[in-house]
Amino acid sequence: MLLRRKAIAPLPPGPRRKPLIGNLLDVPFNNPWAVFEAWRKKYGDVVYLNILGNKIVILNSLDAIVDLFERRAGSYSHRPVFTMVGELMGLDMAIGLNNRDKVWRQQRRLTALILGPAGIKQYIPLQERLATLLVAELQESPEDFAGLFNLMENSVIIYCPDTFKVANSVYPQIIKECEETFVLVSQSIQYGAYLLDFLPWLKHVPAWVPFSPHSFAASGKARILSTVRRPFQFVEDEMKKGTAKPSLVSHLLSNRSDVEGLDFENILAWAAGTMYGAGAESTSATLTSFLLAMAVHPDVQTRAQEELDQLLKNKRLPTMEDRAALPYLCAVIKESMRWHVALPLSLVRTADKDDVYNGHLIPKGAIILPNVRGIAGEGDYLTEFSPERHMREATGVGQDIDPYAYAFGFGRRACPGQYLAENSLFIFAASILTAFKITNAVDSEGKTIPIVPRFVPGLISNPEPFKCSIIPRTPATRKLIANELLASSTT
Asked: Which residue ranges in the chain fall short of pLDDT 50?
């Protein structure tokens, strides 16, 4: 086999490998970005590693990712086996990790029915209503912005009643459970998070052996399965009582379709659970990064608000129809997505067969990591925030790449909820800047609390907790929000 592969092409360049362990000690798995960037400069767009016998290829350019994930999608659309979180915890039934082609196709088909460009139009009134609720809640509990972002985005999936409050950390139990479970998933789904990812034979160690993975896996599986079914069960119960509000899940349950003899409810439960967890979490993370960027870059905030004021005349909150008339705000949202990428390594793929790319062998079974964070040029948080780059004709190079080209995944595995997420990001960000001024918080002595942007590593990377001041822009803001809230409740 080795002789045959050498005859095909050499492996891509990469750091020198040590006997037995390969590059195990070369990668700081918790925060690998500086190392990845150094390798990109030294070795180029395609870098090869070997860790404990596991073949890993890092893609450092959008061209390389598109060439493999889109133009050669037939060979690069499967996920690797995540032995712990996928196989033992059961998450391999989720849309993002599912390699069961028939089941995965039906999950994608169901989500396409409601999340395509035409399907998402039915959710615009709901998203506008939730944006109004968001600014109303922010006015009362501005310190709870992170929880509110999560609450409102999850509400698009299942629509939570208006009476849910986030003040004083009183979260709806269904959303709180999802948040706690997704912390586990986000930490576990990074390839290499567990030794089992590299040494899958350890799954055969009996449960009674000390340090066996099975006890931890069983606990995680129970949490994941409970969380996955909660959105589906919640909406189904509401529909039986006749109290369900319009949502993604209610529309799917109301329009059951054939799934080629498969279990419709199980497929829908996993599709809904995936959207409810990963989809809402990534949008919430981007909104939090947007808020952080506005606090750190007040000049950008001011210009975006001037654009909003010129259109809205301080008489109403924005609607989705205003999007085309707010090019600078749209550019600010895109720059927030580039400034900090919510999914810095996207989701890894695997090579289904030996392949040659640009003269180098991509060996069968290799784990393919798309270095999205490196493509975005992220890293200079305090001085580098330029929405203008997204208002000129894209060059397709470096930081001028349109973030929509990499933020939502690639090819057959691209996020099915991209259009819904784009709408949520716009209406929530536009409503926040219309109503509030975001600045540094002050301490008890009136001194400004500095903000240093830092981010938590994980599948979905959120900003580290930070304090900021979210205050109404004018004395009339409270009345404006009250009027909009009243109007939205009667439509």
From this structure: 1-5, 160-171, 394-395, 397
pLDDT the model gives residue 170: 35
Mark the binding-site residues for heme, compressed into ranges.
415
Q: How many Å apart are CA 489 and CA 162, to the nearest integer?
A: 10
Q: What are phi and psi of 113, to 5 degrees?
A: -60, -35
pLDDT of residue 260: 60
Residue 159's region, left for phi above 0, alpha for psi from -120 to 50, else beta, is left
Contact 381, 339 (CB under 8 A): yes
CB distance 290 to 310 below 8 Å: no
User: Which two structure tokens, joined as six digits, stand for 11?
Assistant: 């492996």
Q: Taking the CA atoms of the chain, what radius of gyration do you get in angstroms?
A: 23
Q: How far apart are CA 100 and CA 20, in angstroms?
A: 33
Query: Going by DSSP bridges, is the β-strand pair 436-440/355-357 parallel, antiparallel, or unpaired?
Result: unpaired
Annotated binding site: 415
Contact present, 439 and 469 (Cβ < 8 Å): yes
CA 96 to chain centroid: 11
CA gap 449, 153 in Å, rounded: 29
Give pLDDT, residue 147. Answer: 85
In DSSP terms, 49 is beta-bridged to 56
Q: What is the pLDDT, as a whole number, of residue 322?
A: 97
**Residue 258: predicted pLDDT:** 62
**How many C-beta atoms surround the C-beta of residue 473 within 10 A?**
17
d(CA 441, CA 296): 11
CA distance 347 to 410: 10
